[in-house]
Amino acid sequence: MNTRQQSKVTYSWYGKPMSSDRKLRTVKYTGILIASERTRTENCIRVGDFILVEGENADEPFVAQLLDLYEDGAQVKRAVVQWFSRVTEVPPNKRKLLKREVYSQEVFFDQVPGFDTDIAAETIIKSTTVIPLRLNEEPPISLNKENIFYVKQSWDGKCFKTLSPDIFSKLKEANKKGGGILSSSNSFIPLDIISPLKKETESVVRSATKPKPVELEIESKHSASKSSLAKERHSQRGVNGIKTPTARKKLQLNSPIRSPKDRFLGCEVLDLLDDEFGAIAPLKPSSTKRKVKFTGILSSPPKIPHTNYNEKSVLDTEEYWQKFTESLQLSPIKVKDYSEKAKNPDVKNDIVFPNKCRELLRRSHVDPSRTMGRSRRSCVEQTNSRIAEQISLLNALESNKEAESSSSSDSLSSSSSEEEEDDEICTPEKKTKLSGTVSTPNSSRKSSVHTPARTPKKTPLPGTPKTPRNATPEIPKRKNATQKPASVLEEARLRLHVSAVPESLPCREEEYQDIYNFVESKLIDETGGCMYISGVPGTGKTATVREVMRSLQQAAENDELPSFHFLEINGMKLTDPHQAYVQILELLTGQKVTATHAAVLLGKLFSTPGPKRKTTVLVVDELDLLWTRKQNVMYNLFDWPTQKHSKLIILAIANTMDLPERIMMNRVASRLGLTRMSFQPYTYKQLQQIISSRLNNMKAFEEDAIQLVSRKVAALSGDARRCLDICRRATEICEFDSQKGTPEMVRMAHVTEAIGEMFSSPYVNAIRNASLHEQIFLKAILAEFRRAGVEEATVQQVYRHLLALCRMEGIPSPTVSEVMAICSRLGACRLLLVESSAKYLELRVRLNVSQDDVMYALKDE
Amino acid sequence: MARLGSARRSPLHRAAPGPRVQGRGGGAPCLSVPELWQCRWLWGFGLRGGQLLLLAHCRKPAFPGCPTRSSAEARTRVSRIKPSAMSKRKAKESGGANGECISQAQKILRERFCHHCAAGRLFGIEHQYRHLLDLLKRTTVHGESNSALIIGPRGSGKTALLNCVLKELKEMKQVRGNLLEVRLNGLLQTNDKVALKEITRQLNLENVVGDKVFGSFAENLAFLLEALRKGDRTSSCPVLFILDEFDLFVHHKNQTLLYNLFDISQSAQTPVTVIGLTCRQDILELLEKRVKSRFSHRQIYLMNSFDFKQYIKIFKEQLALPADFPDKSFAQKWNTNVQHLSEDKTVQDVLQNLFHHSKDLRTLHLFLMLALSNVTVHHPLITASDLHEASKQYRTDSRANIVHGLSVLEICLIIAMKHLNDVYEGEPFNFQMVYNEFQKFIQRKAHCMYNFEKPVVMKAFEHLLQLELVKPIERPNIRAQREYLLMKLLLDSTQIMDALQVYPNCPVDVKQWAASSLSWL
Fold first, then answer.
1. Most A CBs within 10 Å: which of B233, B307, B492, as the mutation test of the A interface?
2. What is the rounded distance in angstroms from the CA atom of residue A652 to the CA atom of residue B455?
3. How many other CB atoms sit within 10 Å of the CB of residue A168?
4. Per-residue pLDDT at A689 exceeds 80
């Protein structure tokens, strides 16, 4: 969304420069005009207004108060702001400190020192309203949900505090002024036709600033005025629990638009659908998990009292809150009730709904990529609308389902006034009527509006069920509990398992410190950078990096470091190098898009300056698998950190030391930089230390046995995994041996046996256990090789030697068919390498084992 | 399932070439030996659920010039045994209790021979059994992740071992309901995409609808990994992955599936045990280094490491009727007969030969199956000669069998080729060379052989080509003349000589010529 606005919107100063600072060569202004070319509207934002600023997440722009506007020496428009933090920006572990529920629209007066308050004026989206409230005060009921924020407390990165009186009054002041400005902004719109909607928003803003009783006035005003749109919208909002981000986005798009009538209606319908969804959503948040992110669902109750209690003119806030949280659970049912009473045709075909919903959901999932080619704006609008429609379908379904389960809803709804009930009864009818009149160019959109007259091809066949989009990945739970390790050996085995993560990694202190310092310095500097880590498998690369990240996160939680995002991707866990983009974006923002789209989004994200953006630390494991022919994945990965504003730190891990030189193009290798580190294979002393630190003074192994394992492994590969596996196997052998007697320690003999099992070449054993004719065949091959001097022979040649050998041994010679069978059997074991058997006697044969091994194996008999 | 032995191993069961139409061109009096067209009984048989079915029963017309339809495969299987279906029918006709017993005994034994795992007894692999059982028990009881490979030649009982272990494991109390099993086969799951869908389907995760898995490859992988990552050692149900034909999974792109499975088995996620079954001894060399590092290097080798005494014991156990056989007296009679057989010298010789040839139990089963089908009401017990006959049949050379059915002219051509091979030391030849060689022979022995015209000889040569006794070394080119196409003979001289020994009514001159190309001297 922000990208779209950037391309369409021009920013210009409002009024004359106020004052100028010659020394700094800055010129101050009182306001800024935001003109949108597309809608031909202009908005004015003045110093002191509350504004929305573009952030990483387009659905949740940052909230701020505009403190100052100036143009610096380079003719760049700058703004100084006071930030407000949303709940989602507060680290999750700190949210507990609040000890209360947070509304979705609640923000905190931001006093965190780290954030840059000087931003580019182009990042301002539009004005908004922030209302200061006392700590025990309820947020007033208002209609323009998405555009009003409440502030109760301040947040300084460590704890929450109540607003100091002077801040409070300042905010209040600004707020009053803001209301005025909002209305004054109308004067900049020459073509403005003030619609009922516009009026409504205005009145809401005003009402929000005043104490409660005004509500009644609004209510009556609306019921009196028979402006159907406004009323419908209003009554829908009344039952609304929260707004979905998509809906909010929609409103931001549409509120300033004075578009032709039918279009307006279309949007309106969508809004209604959104609203309806919002009301139902809290009951089943998981059902839409994929598309919509809910933030603070439970903390958004303020609208229900509106319908339930608006008869009461005097309301005690405490009591009010209580009642209303009780009714929160029930509130969504009301919508359903009304729709049932109104005999909404939707309800009748509710059996078809699940399929429809799924089908729609599936479609929308595909959509963004499909519509990429079109104008982006319309494309996004379509997706939005489609989502909204799907959601509303889902709702209708859910509400139908819940109809039986809650009969108590009647008593609840009876408390509301008759007049209002009338209003709401008529809404579904209107809704369908309205949706019938919607005429959009997009046919799929039309068909997905849930009118009874649906095109039959859209309903999936009953035999083809669709994927549930809300599936949660989970393995079933086990029935019986796991047994606790009973003996010392079992305990030791548990600790020696590779998966058992020790408290600290021994023998990698130096590497740990290097990586830690690197990331820490980048974090503090708020810059980006790359580091390449190499080493053979099993040398603790990933484990060390993870441990570094763990301790850095710990430090960030303790506020010793600025907080950061930590992402991890693994080249082996991707089906395709380009999927890396998808995974990164999903980890970063939770969006699920196609690879190409994700690449564009990420590129934009890391190349545009984002105020308040946290540093991102990205660990890329198995880097070599991200190689593509054009290397664009690697190029992008290493290019982003070099961008000025990216704040991206990349730790790339791979096996080969010279990977950058070997497979990367120059431009990629140069971006990767020279910060490299290589993990040497463990020496036997280190391996010994690793084992003993894991055993932690348990009397399970003899000292010599440990040393034998470590020396053996260090000599072969230095792979710690191998070392641990051998030890584990040795405990098993030991346990097996000592089953009758008392449990004993793992001795040299056990370890030797385990090593023998794991490292012995199977060939000699396989040859020794082969049948007599197979052995003779191998001998014949050796003889043929010796005769011809070439290490390849045809079966025919070998067969002649075989016959001679058989005659010598005095055993009946096999037929050619039998020999072919022997040959293919040995080929299947890969003792021999054979061609395909179609060539029969001309089949060429080679040994897959060294001749010496074969001779050794055959001689012993 | 129609399985006679292992289809993937036995050369006797290669895909049969289609029926060949053998046309005798030119209406030439090509058959000097009309006896060639003897009546032949062609028995083809297939097995369905242990039942021997009579598939083909055709009598060839006994007049010359008629096209004969027969497959090379069918000829190799010309059998002199009486199929059991007939014996069964006869048994019912006679209505004797004996017939009932025999058909029952055959049913039991056939089931044992066809379903190799059903034998239930394992021989000489107690140590491996113990190892695998302990391994899986720890996975289910303690939630320990593991990985292992079972390696052994075909027919050495890898799957049987695993099935036995699983059977015992599932009878344990603390295991019940604590183990999810995922079976994959490298021959079926030919790439990671298919394998992932199959895993998801067998685990019955939440993105499975009915019997289908939707979503793209990337989505499925992410979903499965996420599902496995969420679990932990103490609370999640352990998952056992069985990868049959493990060596084929190695060839998947990047070995993604193996990497991920082994990676899970080496990290604190849902406990998994990965068991791979393969017959390749070099399997570890095929794994990529980081995949190899994650594999725990437990290898369980099955080597058929028994000697001949044990083999005799296995033979007895395989052929013995179980104790719960309904007719006790018959079972006793049968079992004593088996005991006698195992002590018989000729039977031991036959078994020794078989043992020398191949140690695996599948060969033994196949062999016993042949012998078993000789049992009828009139011939109620297996005799030593039955076994001897079966062994002969088992050991017949398929190509030599084809040679038996050739005409004398074709035999002559083959002999000519054999001489060419001797003279030119295996260098390729063409039709013209063969024809010249044949002409030399005819000129010498004109009194006993009819001199065929060249097109007739060409036709006979092409028939040999069709039977794949001769193979062109280069692709037939349209421009090249057929006479000069280079060929190779796919028969060994010993095979030719053996075939001539048993060839009925072979002219003496031809035999002499075959023995030596210099016989005219």
1. B492
2. 74
3. 17
4. yes
- Give residue B47's identity as a one-letter amino acid code: L
Do A26 and A17 contact (CB within 8 A), yes or no?
Answer: no
Give pLDDT tens digits for A547-593.
999 999 999 999 888 889 899 999 999 999 999 999 999 998 888 88
Please check whether residue A120 is in contact with residue A6, taking contact to mean a CB–CB distance below 8 angstroms. Answer: no
Does the distance separating the beta carbons of A818 and B357 come in below 8 Å? yes
Question: Which residue has tokens 């010598």?
Answer: A808
Q: DSSP string of B278-335?
A: E--TTHHHHS-HHHHHHS--EEEE------HHHHHHHHHHHHSPPTT-S-HHHHHHHH
Structure tokens, A481? 């509990």
CB B334 within 8 A of CB B383: no
Q: How far apart are CA A91 and CA A564, in angstroms?
A: 10
Measured CA to CA, the distance from residue A114 to residue A562 in angstroms comes to 8
**C-alpha span between A106 and A102 (Å, rounded):** 6
What CA–CA distance (Å, rounded) separates A736 from A727?
A: 14
Spatial distance between the Cα atoms of B70 and B445, rounded to a whole number of angstroms: 33
pLDDT in tens, B188-239: 999 999 999 899 889 888 777 777 777 888 888 988 898 888 888 888 889 9
Distance CA A611, CA A605 (A): 12
Q: How far is CA A853 from the centre of its chain?
A: 55
Beta-carbon separation of B209 and A722 below 8 A:
no
Put simply, the answer to whether B226 touches A573 (Cβ < 8 Å) is no
Taking the alpha carbons at both ends of chain A, their separation in whole angstroms is 80
pLDDT at A367 over 50: no
Top residue of A494, A572, A653 to mutate, by most chain B CBs within 10 Å, is A572
Q: φ, ψ for residue B362 (rounded to 5)?
A: -65, -40
| B296 part of contact set with chain A, CB < 8 Å | yes
Is there a contact between B230 and A474 (Cβ–Cβ < 8 Å)? Answer: yes
State pTM to two decimals. Answer: 0.65
The Cα A806–Cα A816 span in angstroms is: 13
Determine contact: B497 vs chain A, CB below 8 A: no
Tokens for B455? 């097109």
Radius of gyration of chain B (CA): 29
Residue with tokens 């040299």: A748
Q: How far apart are CA A143 and CA A200, in angstroms?
A: 8
> What distance in Å separates the CA atoms of residue A326 and residue A309, rounded to the nearest whole number?
13
B15 touches chain A (CB under 8 A): no
Which among A583, A579, A593, A588 has a CA at the least distance from the CA of A615? A588
Residue B5 CB neighbour total at 10 angstroms? 20
Q: Chain A residues with CB inside 8 Å of B193's CB?
A: 575
DSSP class of residue B174?
T
CB B165 within 8 A of CB B134: no
Tokens of B11: 């050369």
Average pLDDT, integer, range B448-458: 84
A517 within 8 A of A696, measured Cβ to Cβ = no
